[in-house]
């Protein structure tokens, strides 16, 4: 593990994501009523710690001084393998997204230290059933491959049966946080291998040589392939061919209860069925300020003058409460593979209401995006379900577009390449202009120097001219006196 990784300000400066806030609130809700003192072991920048200070006596500890500077509670710089606290000093020891980072050689020591200072409870959050290979990056310097976040292991609930000393038993397990982008290891591997790319995380620091990963470039073809694989997984989930990815965080509460035999720990249950209602009242639809991975219910996100309705499944047809006596609202459906909105054609049904037939668009992991003009004033939509697709149809939807669509994709790629070429030319021109500007600045500086020299010479000549004028005046005065004397004595 490279300690420089944890001192990067970029790891700690950004505001907590919606998923991190969700996990923090879930952890907070699990703290038992008889807890007064809390140690946040590996508190980082205080995403969880700072939510607890109003209700509990909280202390934060971490190995990163940069992170601790943002914690709004008493802190101490300490390693989990040597916590500077007395036995059972805290009612509860909390450790959120920490123990998965600890190297194997000190893992058991850190676990024992957490248990040693915990008086009553231990509350742990770890990534749940993470596909570790999905977050591998390659060092650009030494070519070493490593997990971008230094995760050493993946967890299931059963791993906590005997993880902590025998006098701690698991009280509860639950799930929180956003869903994983991929739940299918095969698709995850395909996304990395076929797209010839790796996990996008510029702040990753190589544990072998200390080189920062930095930004990576992806070709348009690689980016499209990744979008197609995401669409394929979503289509399979939407059509019941596989289960949605589970929430990414496992929360485990353990209680000190004396010596006991390890009991089996069941994996937490989580409802995960997609539901598309027959009718949808837009004013009652939940609103979020961020997109959700694999939503199970429709929700809205504002986008300028539009509302974007996120649909967990693509209906066959949508009908509205707007009648043909009014202009048809301009709805558009986003195709996540093509990365463009498709304008929908409105038709009036037998009752005079506007309806739209849904095209075969591809979703992303945040579902289908239907753009609705807010000014249209739509209040209620009727959603007619589509016929389910089998695996072949899902694959065809994600990868085999019509000839026109493929030609359109080819044109887009050609346009992207042309734009990249023109951008390179503009960069070359800008560099040439900059070089010429530097030359002109040097010439200008030289001319200024020469001008200064000329100004100095001019000043010297002015002084000499003044001296000569003075001497001329003196000579004229002398000659005038001599003329006067000659006249006087002649």
Automatic annotation (TrEMBL):
Domain called Methyltransferase: residue spans: 38-117
InterPro entries assigned to the protein according to its UniProt record, in alphabetical order = Methyltransf_25 (IPR041698), SAM-dependent_MTases_sf (IPR029063)
Q: Which UniProt keywords apply?
A: Coiled coil, Methyltransferase, S-adenosyl-L-methionine, Transferase
Coiled-coil residues are: 406-478
One Pfam family name from the record?
Methyltransf_25
Q: Which GO terms describe its molecular function?
A: methyltransferase activity
Reply yes or no: does the keyword Chloroplast apply. Answer: no
| Record-level GO BP terms | methylation
Q: What is this protein called?
A: Methyltransferase domain-containing protein
Q: Which organism is it from?
A: Bordetella genomosp. 12
């Amino acid at each position: 593990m490279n300690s420089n990784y944890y001192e990067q300000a970029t790891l700690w400066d950004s505001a907590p994501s919606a998923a991190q806030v969700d996990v923090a609130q879930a952890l907070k809700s699990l703290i038992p009523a008889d807890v007064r003192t809390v140690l946040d072991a590996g508190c980082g920048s205080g995403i969880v710690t700072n939510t607890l200070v109003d209700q509990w006596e909280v202390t934060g500890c971490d190995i990163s001084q940069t992170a601790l500077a943002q914690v709004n509670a008493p802190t101490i710089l300490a390693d989990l393998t040597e916590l500077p606290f007395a036995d059972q000093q805290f009612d509860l020891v909390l450790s959120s997204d920490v123990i998965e980072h600890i190297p194997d050689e000190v893992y058991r020591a850190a676990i024992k230290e957490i248990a040693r200072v915990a008086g009553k409870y231990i509350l742990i959050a770890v990534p749940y059933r993470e596909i570790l290979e999905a977050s591998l990056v390659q060092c650009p310097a030494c070519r070493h491959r490593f997990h971008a976040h230094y995760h050493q292991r993946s967890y299931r609930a059963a791993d906590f049966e005997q993880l902590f000393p025998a006098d701690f038993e698991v009280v509860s397990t639950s799930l929180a946080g956003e869903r994983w982008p991929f739940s299918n290891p095969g698709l995850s591997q395909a996304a990395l291998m076929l797209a010839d790319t790796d996990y996008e995380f510029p702040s990753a620091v190589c544990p072998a040589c200390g080189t920062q990963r930095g930004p990576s470039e992806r070709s348009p073809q690689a980016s499209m392939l990744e979008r197609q694989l995401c669409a394929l997984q979503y289509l399979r989930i939407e059509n019941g061919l596989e289960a949605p990815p589970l929430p990414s965080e496992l929360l485990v509460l353990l209680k000190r209860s004396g010596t006991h035999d390890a009991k089996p720990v069941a994996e937490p249950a989580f409802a995960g069925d997609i539901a598309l209602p027959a009718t949808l009242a837009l004013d009652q639809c939940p609103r979020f300020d961020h997109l959700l991975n694999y939503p199970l219910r429709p929700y809205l996100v504002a986008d300028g003058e539009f509302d974007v309705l996120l649909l967990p499944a693509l209906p066959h047809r949508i009908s509205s409460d707007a009648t043909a006596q009014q202009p048809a609202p301009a709805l558009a459906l986003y195709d996540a593979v093509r990365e463009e909105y498709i304008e929908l054609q409105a038709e009036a049904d037998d009752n005079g209401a506007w309806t739209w037939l849904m095209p075969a668009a591809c979703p992303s992991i945040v579902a289908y995006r239907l753009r609705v003009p807010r000014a249209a004033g739509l209040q209620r939509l009727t959603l007619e379900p589509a016929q389910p697709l089998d695996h072949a149809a899902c694959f065809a939807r994600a990868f085999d577009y019509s000839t026109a669509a493929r030609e359109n994709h080819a044109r887009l790629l050609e346009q992207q390449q042309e734009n990249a070429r023109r951008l390179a030319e503009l960069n070359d021109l800008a560099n040439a202009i900059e070089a010429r500007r530097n030359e002109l600045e040097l010439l200008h500086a030289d001319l200024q120097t020469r001008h200064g020299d000329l100004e100095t010479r001019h000043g010297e000549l002015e002084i000499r001219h003044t001296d000569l004028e003075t001497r001329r005046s003196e000579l004229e005065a002398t000659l005038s006196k001599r003329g006067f004397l000659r006249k006087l004595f002649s």
